[in-house]
Amino acid sequence: MRMATEQTNEPNCVDDRDQPREGKTNQNTNSLTGASAPHPAPEAEEIYRRWLQFLDEEFIKHCAPERRAEIVRDQLYQIYLGRPHGGKLNLTLTSELPGNVLSMSLDPENVTLEAEHFADVDRERFARRKPLIWFWQMFDRSPIGLNHWLGLRFRCTLGRHIFDHMGAGVRIFHGVDFTYGYNLRIDDGAVIRQGALLQDRGGITIGKGAVIGSYARILSYRRNPDNFDQVALMPTAIGNGAMIGSHAIVQGGSRIGDHEVVGEFPAMRN
Q1: DSSP helix/strand/coil, 175
Q2: For the chain, which domains are there?
Q3: Are the CB atoms for 238 and 217 separated by under 8 Å?
Q4: Tens digit of pLDDT for each residue in 14-27?
């Protein structure tokens, strides 16, 4: 048990060594991958890949929170408003206030996240990731967030710049949320299904080929029952090939063994 996030030495920029590998099949799923999987039209796929490569290169090149916030702001302007960022807002007309609120909220510099209020947050490490976390959340809430092919690759691209480790062949589905990101390690071939919550305040490790079911909750802390505001950070580990059922809750400090099953999976019912 530890009461505060440990300081770690890490490079200024996350490198690009953990590219997701296509054409692999996870042993715990029946999903089609590689050539047999559905693909966008060739022209669209080429554009999607160019966009993801551009984002990856920009976030490798730029680590300063301010510059990353500008990159994310410019991308969200295009996604939500269909136009480049620029021009002056009319701040005097009451009728334009909602539009101004939207425009300003597309800039990570103008938003706050719940994680910033936690006493154990490493502010320097979180600051570098905050623009990317906001990008992750806003992408998933945008119309293109439901584009399955693009979404899987977008989250892997950002994950390499957010998480402590992102393995190859990881698949993260729509609506997955996490707290800090820098305390999260995801090994090769892991699958995290829709709506899962990874509360990585104390550290979460997800092993190779593990599956986190839809809307599961993985915690890495426990609250003092006599003082709700007092939190003990307790790292949680999900073993290789383990399966966490939909809506299951894994408490902070848990050690789920290799190939262990928590909760129910419909295919395993008698």
Answers
A1: coil
A2: 39-162 (no CATH), 164-270 (2.160.10.10)
A3: no
A4: 333 344 434 344 44
